[in-house]
Specification:
This protein has 278 residues and is of the alpha+beta class. It contains 8 helices and 11 strands. The strands form 3 sheets. Strands 3-2-1-5-4 form a 5-stranded mixed beta sheet. A 4-stranded antiparallel beta sheet has the order 6-7-8-9. Strands 10-11 form a two-stranded antiparallel sheet. The longest helix is centred in the N-terminal third of the chain and has 20 residues. The structure holds glycine.
């Protein structure tokens, strides 16, 4: 991402934050607010989720998304979905079913059953991702993801996390990263916190990065908990970014990826920031 894109990304994350906050003010719970923030980011073509997702080796988008309710430890996720514009809404439908994760064709069929319309896979392809894909193929390089996520604590103390991604540019068809795996890219648990991850999925998954951060909140500050999780990812050779809200409402984020845009709001404070990684 060039610096010229920073301002518009900050506008994007701030808009998602404000929409989630408005819902909370109207009495919605944390899960609904987290899903709405991620749905808006999926519709924003500058992020690697929904419209604007990274393209796989065959030149189309395969989407992963997950939601987790910290109150019930309910988890719903979809992986390698090609024809759903807002996979986070489908992940929510999975949470409200007997399953945890549905993939590919089966996830698409489930979307139709739940009334989510099919989109033309070409609707998800933007000019920018097409250029990145062409360049990545030329260089035969992997590029890091620009996954989106939201973590929310509502007034009733409920914690929720939602994450959505197009994965990594030029990824192998059928490759699934950390996003839809509980405790890898998405995690929420009452009394601990809610965490959402971006970055190189294989490493985040092996390190169980989101769970690792939430579980170490007991004896660490939120910032230290995130650092400990990213250190574990780094020891495996990967990089990532994490956002977190804990059960006390403290927010934190940390990354070892090159850039990450964040927007936050608490009763006392709000802001948006683009951070360059360590
Ligand atoms: N973190 C997104 C992915 O690796 O698929």
């Amino acid at each position: 991402m060039g610096r010229e894109d920073w301002t518009s990304r900050l506008v994007g994350v701030s808009r998602a934050r404000d929409a989630a906050w408005r819902l909370l003010e109207q009495g919605a719970d944390a899960l609904r607010a987290a899903v709405e923030a991620v749905r808006l980011l999926e519709d924003d073509p500058q992020f690697n989720a929904g419209v604007g997702s990274a393209l796989n080796r065959d030149g189309f988008a395969e989407l992963d998304a997950a939601v987790m309710d910290g109150e019930t430890l309910g988890f719903g996720a979809v992986a390698a979905v090609r024809d759903v514009k807002n996979p986070v809404l489908l992940a929510l439908e999975v949470l409200n079913s007997e399953h945890v994760l549905l993939a590919g064709e089966g996830a698409s069929r489930f979307a139709r059953e739940r009334g989510l319309p099919a989109c033309d896979p070409r609707e998800l392809v933007t000019e920018r991702q097409l250029e990145r894909w062409t360049a990545a193929r030329r260089r035969a390089l992997e590029e890091r993801s620009g996954t989106v996520g939201a973590v929310v604590l509502d007034a009733g103390g409920r914690l929720a996390a939602a994450t959505s991604t197009g994965g990594m540019v030029d990824q192998r068809v059928g490759r699934v990263g950390d996003t839809p795996l509980p405790g890898a890219g998405t995690y929420a648990e009452a009394g601990l916190g809610a965490v959402s991850a971006t970055g190189h999925g294989e490493f985040l998954a092996r390190a169980l990065a989101s769970y690792r951060a939430a579980a170490s909140l007991g004896d660490r500050s939120p910032q230290e908990a995130l650092r400990a999780a990213l250190d574990a990812v780094g020891r495996l050779g990967g990089s990532g970014g994490l956002i977190l809200v804990d059960a006390r409402g403290r927010v934190a984020w940390a990354q070892t990826t090159p850039e990450m845009s964040v927007a936050w709001r608490t009763p006392a404070d709000e802001g948006a920031q683009m951070r360059e990684g360590a």
